[in-house]
Every structure is written in C-alpha cells, then in structure tokens.
C-alpha cells in the first residue's frame, strides 16, 4: 500500500543526493565509484566522442535547467517550420519523437497489455469450457485466456483493496484539513482529530505510524496523495476494459505493426516526471553547479516518448528503438516493462536491427520482487525463434484455476483487514524447476538487464522491490532513493529498477565516450566482468513468500553491483 510499509530498507535515512556515484570504501554508501573514476582515471583525459543516449520513456522535460545543455538536438531539422527537413518521416523532430500522440493531442493513459488481450480473447472464449472442441491454436489461446482471467482478477482485487485503504486515509486527512481550514493538515491537527468510528481510529493510527516510518508527516502525506492518484488511474484506465482512446489520440493503423510515420514532436507529453528523472541519472550536467551530476559527462539525451500511464505497446517500442538507432544513438535506456506480449516479433526485429547497427540496449528488470527466471517480463533479450517456440511447446505451464474475488467484509473492502494482492495457494503452486537450456535459446548480445540495489553493504543490499534472476538479470545498480531531475527545474528522490537501469546506461555511455571502438557486446562484457562482487548473503522474499538469505550470485548473473572505476580500468586494457 504505502512506501513506508513496502520496503525493508529504511526510507527515513538521509542519503547524499549523489550517493549512487560515490565509492563504498571512502563513503560507506554502495555507489558505483563514478567520482573515483573521474578523479583518478579521467582527470587528464579528453573525451573521444559525444555519445547519444536515447531515453525511451514517458517523456522528458526539454527545458530543465540541469538537462537542457545535454539534450540531443537534430541539427538537420529546422525548428517550427512544419517541414520534414531531413526527410526521416518526422516533422520538426528537434529533440526526439513522441509515438503516442498526434495533432489531436497526446495519449496519457492506456490499458495494461493484459486488458487489451482480454478485450480480444473474451468474446471468443468466455463461453468455452474444457469440453469444447478446439484445434491446437484455439487450445493455446484458451489456455492463455484462462491465465489472463486469473491474473486480471488478482490485479483488480489488489488495486481495489489498495485504493480502499488509501481512500479511507485520504478521507480522514481531507476532513482534518477542512476542520482547520488548511490545504494540507499537520500531524498535530491529526492527533487532535476525534474519529467518528472504529475504522477512523484505525486510520489515525496508520497515519501516526506511517509518519514515523516515512520520517515525517509531509512525506507520508505525499505518499498517500501519490498512491491515491496511482490506484485511481489504475482502476479508471489501466484495468478498465471500456477505456481505449488510442485510435482517437494517436490515429495510426494499429494493425500495421511496421507503420512508423505517426506521432508528434512533443517529447515531454502530459507527464514527463519519470523520463526526466531517468535522463538526469544518465547525464545531468556535471559542470553547471546545479542540482545533481549524472553518471556520464559527454552525452546527448535523445527523448523518445512511447510509455503512457499504463503498458507500452510493442509497435511503439519497436519504432522507438528504430528511431534511436537511425538518428545516431549508441545506448538506449528502457525503464519500462510488462507481463504480457502482443507483437513480440516487431520488437525482436527492432532489437536485431539495433544489434546489427552496434547499439546497446539497457533494460530495467522490474519492481515486483519477482524471479525473472520463472516469470514473464517483456520486452526481453530472447527472440521468438523456432527454437524458443519448440521449447515452450514442450514446457507448457499449468494454469491455475479461474480466480474468484473474495467478498469484502466492510464498506471499504477487505484491504484494511488483510494483506492485499495475495491469493490462496493451490496444489498447482509447486516450485518451478529451472532448466538452464531455456537461457541458451537465441537471444540478443546487445542487451543488459538491470536489478536495483540499496545503499548499505549488508543483507538488505537487494532493494526489496527489485526483480531478480540468476540467469536473466545481468547486474544490479543503485535504485533506492535516487535523487534526480523532475519537470519544472525541480529534483526528487525515486525508487525503482527504472532508476537502476539509467545508472548502467550512463556507465555504458561513459565507457564509450573514452573507448569509442568498443562493440555493444564488449561494453556489456566489461560492465559485467568489472562489477563489485558481493561476498555476503542478501535477504528477500521468494516466490512462496518466505524470507530467504542467498548469495548475491543467486539473484543475478554477474553476482555484483556495477562499478565505473573498475569498468574503465578494464576497458583500458580490453582486448
């Protein structure tokens, strides 16, 4: 529900704004030793090239004080003349392109891919039973449909329960504010409030506890308001099968996967917070004395908008990758993901195109504390090859029984009384046996998958929320309370693998800045071989919900945290 209740890491800690760039030995914070690299390795060296890093995201603020000097500018295009001067199919693409907009405006919200797929499959299979005669294709679609029905039920229940709890808290906070004629109440105001019933008494207790755990009432209040907006959007748009404004606001031929000339040049869009934050981590101006310092010192940030509030669409992701490659990007950051695919082939083709053209893709592993070795996470480095299809046909997963949502036990639903989002275990919930053959299936060599680490070198080093995978998450990087740029010349601290991925993208750009002849697979290898190895065990909750302590090498391929100093040292003598 709340950030204060979601993480084992202490959210009340005071971290240096640039902690992710610090060195563990000299500072005590498990950063990536960026500053050490600049001080000891790069001090007297001149950059050999400026590296374009594409940020495929939800939008980037092109006017931010700490980003405007590092923003990519298309010198072949004349701003504002309404002409496609460079003939690339995109009119006035000065700082990048927005694939989820048009002359009519911008698409801000979209469904989850799960909901879009249910919209297609439900009319076909809602009346189907296990006794209905089906051909092999229909059987596979029906199997997928049953899985989606269960997943949708769990997601909707979780969102409804979370929203009910947050709504109850917000209702009390709003009542206190009204009583005291304030826009935002204080903790003292809350303490003086006389609850109307037992439920409100419980809410007041939650507010007090949350304020302590978050470090202040102000932080707690912000978390509640952010959570209210998040879950309201989820129920109103992401999980609402009746919502679909793609055709109206984008206007492309969605059935044509390889159509590319659509969108507009508004790279900020209606909500550029996430993409602006990501961009600052990669390359915020290190010389202007403002805000923060990005990882890389000689980059241009290319803004490509494909991610709404909801799940990105495969066609837009593919076009975003191709646009970045065609316009000179050497590194692409992708801090997004989803649990279902619609048109993986078009994304696979774009990834292969980037691989051929020598472009590195850096992708966030996800924030569900899930095992990417056993779960689905898209996009990913694996191609839908004949080998993969044969493997999947031979290793079909059993589908859990159809989901039945529980009956709420109060007017606010079940969320106040139980841990939301869970479901009763069934005999089908058996441990998944990992088959290493799966991870040798055809895949991209230009792909790095990134998990998120915290600041302390102890058993809490794995950020609680971060996905993991012994075979499918390559490295970890700082992703906890990362301060970076947000729209309006402001700065804020966010958590997520979305923050860890740009740390690695910035490192890749930094390596290429001083070693321009390296190929993507070589940069990947350097980053992975130069990690700071974690020699102790870390704790997390596994798929069964059990607290476990495991070697760091059990949760990622490299067994460590990326390190800029080590990577640049290795790059100097890399052959």
Can you walk through the features of this model?
The protein contains 16 helices and 15 strands. The protein has helices at 3-6, 24-27, 34-40, 113-125, 136-179, 187-191, 198-214, 217-238, 246-249, 273-283, 314-326, 344-356, 386-394, 497-514, 520-529, 564-572, and strands spanning 51-57, 96-98, 101-102, 105-106, 299-305, 331-334, 360-364, 447-453, 475-478, 482-486, 490-494, 532-533, 537-541, 547-551, 560-561. The strands form 5 sheets. A 7-stranded parallel β-sheet has the order 2-5-1-6-7-8-9, sandwiched between helices. Helix 15 (520-529) crosses helix 16 (564-572). The model is unreliable at 1-7 and 399-430 (pLDDT under 50).
Shape field? globular
Structural class comes to alpha/beta
| Quaternary state of the chains | single chain
Name the strands of the widest sheet in spatial order: 2-5-1-6-7-8-9
Beta-strand residue percentage? 5-15%
Tell me the number of helical segments per DSSP (H or I, 4 or more residues long).
Answer: 16
Amino-to-carboxy terminus distance = 49 Å
**Largest sheet data:** 7 strands, parallel
Helix content: 25-40%
Radius of gyration: 24 Å
Number of strands: 15
Mean of pLDDT: 91
Low-pLDDT regions:
1-7, 399-430
Brief descriptors of the model:
575 residues; alpha/beta; seven-stranded parallel beta sheet; 16 helices; disordered N terminus
Topology (SSEs and partners):
Elements: H1 3-6, H2 24-27, H3 34-40, E1 51-57, E2 96-98, E3 101-102, E4 105-106, H4 113-125, H5 136-179, H6 187-191, H7 198-214, H8 217-238, H9 246-249, H10 273-283, E5 299-305, H11 314-326, E6 331-334, H12 344-356, E7 360-364, H13 386-394, E8 447-453, E9 475-478, E10 482-486, E11 490-494, H14 497-514, H15 520-529, E12 532-533, E13 537-541, E14 547-551, E15 560-561, H16 564-572
Parallel strand pairs: 1-5, 1-6, 2-5, 6-7, 7-8, 8-9
Antiparallel strand pairs: 3-4, 10-11, 12-15, 13-14
Helix pairs in contact: 3-16, 4-5, 5-8, 7-8, 10-14, 11-12, 15-16
């Amino acid at each position: 529900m709340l950030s204060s209740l979601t993480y084992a890491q202490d959210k009340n800690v005071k971290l240096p704004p640039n902690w992710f760039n610090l060195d563990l030995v000299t500072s005590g914070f498990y950063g990536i030793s960026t500053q050490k690299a600049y001080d000891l390795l790069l001090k007297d060296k001149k950059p050999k090239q400026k590296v374009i890093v594409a940020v495929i995201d939800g939008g980037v603020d092109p006017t931010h004080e700490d980003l405007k000097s590092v923003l990519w500018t298309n010198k072949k295009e004349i701003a504002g003349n309404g002409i496609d001067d460079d003939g690339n199919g995109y009119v006035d693409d000065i700082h990048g392109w927005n694939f989820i907009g048009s002359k009519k405006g911008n698409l801000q919200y979209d469904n989850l891919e799960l909901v879009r797929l249910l919209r297609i499959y439900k009319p076909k299979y809602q009346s189907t039973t296990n006794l209905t005669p089906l051909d092999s294709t229909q059987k596979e679609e029906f199997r997928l449909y049953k899985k989606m029905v269960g997943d949708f039920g769990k997601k909707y229940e979780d969102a409804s329960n979370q929203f009910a709890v947050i709504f109850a808290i917000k209702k009390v906070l709003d009542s206190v504010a009204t009583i005291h004629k304030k826009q935002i109440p204080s903790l003292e105001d809350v303490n003086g409030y006389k609850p109307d019933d037992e439920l409100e008494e419980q809410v007041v207790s939650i507010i007090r506890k949350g304020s302590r755990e978050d470090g202040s009432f102000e932080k707690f209040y912000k978390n509640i308001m952010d959570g209210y907006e998040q879950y309201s959007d989820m129920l109103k748009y992401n999980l609402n099968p009746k919502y679909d404004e793609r055709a109206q606001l984008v206007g492309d031929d969605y059935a044509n996967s390889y159509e590319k000339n659509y969108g507009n040049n508004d790279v900020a869009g209606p909500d550029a917070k996430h993409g602006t934050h990501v961009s600052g981590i990669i390359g915020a101006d290190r010389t202007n004395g403002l805000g923060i310092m990005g990882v890389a010192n000689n980059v241009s940030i290319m803004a490509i908008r494909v991610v709404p509030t909801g799940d990105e669409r495969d066609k837009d992701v593919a076009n975003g990758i191709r646009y970045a490659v065609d316009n000179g990007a050497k590194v692409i950051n992708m801090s997004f993901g989803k649990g279902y695919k619609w048109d993986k082939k078009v994304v696979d083709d774009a990834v292969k195109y980037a691989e051929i053209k020598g472009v590195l893709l850096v992708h966030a592993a996800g924030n569900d504390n899930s095992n990417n070795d056993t779960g689905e996470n898209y996009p990913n480095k694996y191609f839908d090859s004949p080998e993969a299809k044969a493997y999947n046909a031979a290793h079909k997963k059993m589908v859990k029984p159809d989901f039945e949502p529980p009956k709420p036990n109060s007017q606010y639903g079940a969320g106040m009384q139980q841990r939301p989002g869970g479901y009763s275990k069934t005999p089908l919930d058996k441990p998944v046996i990992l088959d290493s053959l799966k991870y040798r299936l055809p895949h991209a060599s230009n792909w790095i998958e990134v998990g998120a680490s915290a600041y302390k070198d102890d058993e809490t080093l794995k950020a609680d929320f971060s996905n993991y995978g012994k075979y499918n998450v390559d490295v970890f990087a700082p992703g906890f309370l990362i301060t970076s740029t947000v729209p309006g010349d402001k700065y804020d601290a966010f958590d997520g693998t979305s923050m860890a991925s740009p740390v690695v993208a910035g490192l890749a750009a930094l390596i290429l800045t001083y070693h321009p002849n390296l190929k993507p697979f070589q940069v990947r290898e350097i980053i992975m071989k130069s990690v700071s190895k974690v020699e102790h065990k870390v704790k997390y909750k596994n798929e069964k919900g059990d607290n476990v302590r495991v070697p760091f090498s059990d949760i990622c391929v490299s067994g460590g945290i990326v390190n800029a100093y080590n990577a640049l040292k290795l790059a100097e003598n890399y052959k």
